């Protein structure tokens, strides 16, 4: 199905919105960069430049030199922001303490998220970063950008902010680092009104949803991650921009169990593509892999000689549920034991494909270790269809939110609330029947207990009948 | 809606604190108006934000509400 935007898309005239010329963007030479010293001594930061990886210190120095050479009227906040940011960071290295103050009432009108107030607590020494607020920009599904768009955002940010940005850490958003309070509304206007670009989530709200590349490029995608991500982002705009949750809440969407956005570890509600029917096997292609005609793993590990492909050693023996066999030139899979780990499919993609009855598994409660320890998500919905308009998924989401908003304490993540209530109680509240899939080792884990109403006859017994058979 | 807005403002004015979690506002409103629904209270908060009576305060990870001009300054302390 072709993409249907929710709102009419106006044509964006990027060329009219660009600010800098190519000469202004490339305004220093390699030689100048080599000899460039920022105005503060930063010996420890310069140590970081010596390692084998690209260093943010080197990147920041390029930004600092670039700003030094721009004309005065070509930027709206202090020229020295990057140099002062590095200078203050060196102080933190010296003292082992941060000098950023958290929080504040900065924001843009009507939105409770997307702008994060940050202030220096050494404003006399580093005046240009007295205010150094962060703006989160809602990334497009799968992070596909038009380069004109990126250049325009970069120009705007150089002009109205520090020019420093980081693209796509764990939050997903494009993160613009460092501007003053006065610049927030103009930036918001330019992003939303000129570029058709919303800002993302922060604080106690729905955070910017993010998805894997999905059907756009990946044949493994078992549902349209981009479509679901876009739909829920649009449908839950109020939750995204007007925070009223007990704490943050994240959705992430993986098209298959390979989990390229690691939703299982990084989101309160993780959607992972899966299938209900059998893995499709092309026996001829299996034979071709065994004969060495096709490279295993689509050549992904071809950098070194691993010897001849051994289907027993590399596939059958590594199946986590030991449900495969290769006998007399035929591959067999006991599908009811398969846990959809994707291993066999990843190794032999030309021979094996997931089934055709596809949908999502929904897992809840992953989080980073801020309060309690870090936690992976727990499988709650083993299978659900994932097709527009996704009413079944929305209904489930709202049931979970209702419970969390009712019972969750201030700053309690969904995963912590689930732990506090216990899985059996939680399942009962959201109306999902217990299933062995929810328990890691179902035969050993007494996670799910029988209740009296689940047992024919309940707990009571006829004592006379019992005594007839058992001496006192 | 108007009585919920009134209850929110009264709570915010009378409290010793200057910043409130949504949950605290919800509880305070339900004390005065027991059948007020969470969604209605949220809508009332949004209306008060939009008319400038309330403002958001955010640390980046969690968000609170406060009365504009009452103990809430741009300075995070
Ligand atoms: S999670 Fe699966 S579907 Fe999505 S990009 Fe990765 S391999 Fe492809
Ligand atoms: S997907 Fe994983 S569990 Fe299923 S048959 Fe293949 S290797 Fe085994």
From TrEMBL, chain A:
<dbReference type="InterPro" id="IPR036136">
    <property type="entry name" value="Nit/Sulf_reduc_fer-like_dom_sf"/>
</dbReference>
<protein>
    <submittedName>
        <fullName>Dissimilatory sulfite reductase alpha subunit</fullName>
    </submittedName>
</protein>
<dbReference type="GO" id="GO:0051539">
    <property type="term" value="F:4 iron, 4 sulfur cluster binding"/>
</dbReference>
<dbReference type="GO" id="GO:0018551">
    <property type="term" value="F:dissimilatory sulfite reductase (NADH) activity"/>
</dbReference>
<dbReference type="GO" id="GO:0046872">
    <property type="term" value="F:metal ion binding"/>
</dbReference>
<dbReference type="InterPro" id="IPR045854">
    <property type="entry name" value="NO2/SO3_Rdtase_4Fe4S_sf"/>
</dbReference>
<dbReference type="GO" id="GO:0009337">
    <property type="term" value="C:sulfite reductase complex (NADPH)"/>
</dbReference>
<dbReference type="GO" id="GO:0020037">
    <property type="term" value="F:heme binding"/>
</dbReference>
<keyword id="KW-0004">4Fe-4S</keyword>
<keyword id="KW-0408">Iron</keyword>
<dbReference type="GO" id="GO:0050311">
    <property type="term" value="F:sulfite reductase (ferredoxin) activity"/>
</dbReference>
<dbReference type="InterPro" id="IPR006067">
    <property type="entry name" value="NO2/SO3_Rdtase_4Fe4S_dom"/>
</dbReference>
<dbReference type="InterPro" id="IPR011806">
    <property type="entry name" value="DsrA"/>
</dbReference>
<dbReference type="Pfam" id="PF01077">
    <property type="entry name" value="NIR_SIR"/>
</dbReference>
<feature type="domain" description="4Fe-4S ferredoxin-type">
    <location>
        <begin position="329"/>
        <end position="357"/>
    </location>
</feature>
<keyword id="KW-0479">Metal-binding</keyword>
<dbReference type="GO" id="GO:0000103">
    <property type="term" value="P:sulfate assimilation"/>
</dbReference>
<dbReference type="GO" id="GO:0016002">
    <property type="term" value="F:sulfite reductase activity"/>
</dbReference>
<keyword id="KW-0411">Iron-sulfur</keyword>
<dbReference type="InterPro" id="IPR045169">
    <property type="entry name" value="NO2/SO3_Rdtase_4Fe4S_prot"/>
</dbReference>
<dbReference type="InterPro" id="IPR017896">
    <property type="entry name" value="4Fe4S_Fe-S-bd"/>
</dbReference>
UniProtKB/TrEMBL annotation, chain B:
<feature type="domain" description="Dissimilatory sulphite reductase D">
    <location>
        <begin position="4"/>
        <end position="70"/>
    </location>
</feature>
<protein>
    <submittedName>
        <fullName>Dissimilatory sulfite reductase D (DsrD)</fullName>
    </submittedName>
</protein>
<dbReference type="InterPro" id="IPR036388">
    <property type="entry name" value="WH-like_DNA-bd_sf"/>
</dbReference>
<dbReference type="Pfam" id="PF08679">
    <property type="entry name" value="DsrD"/>
</dbReference>
<dbReference type="InterPro" id="IPR036390">
    <property type="entry name" value="WH_DNA-bd_sf"/>
</dbReference>
<dbReference type="InterPro" id="IPR014793">
    <property type="entry name" value="DsrD"/>
</dbReference>
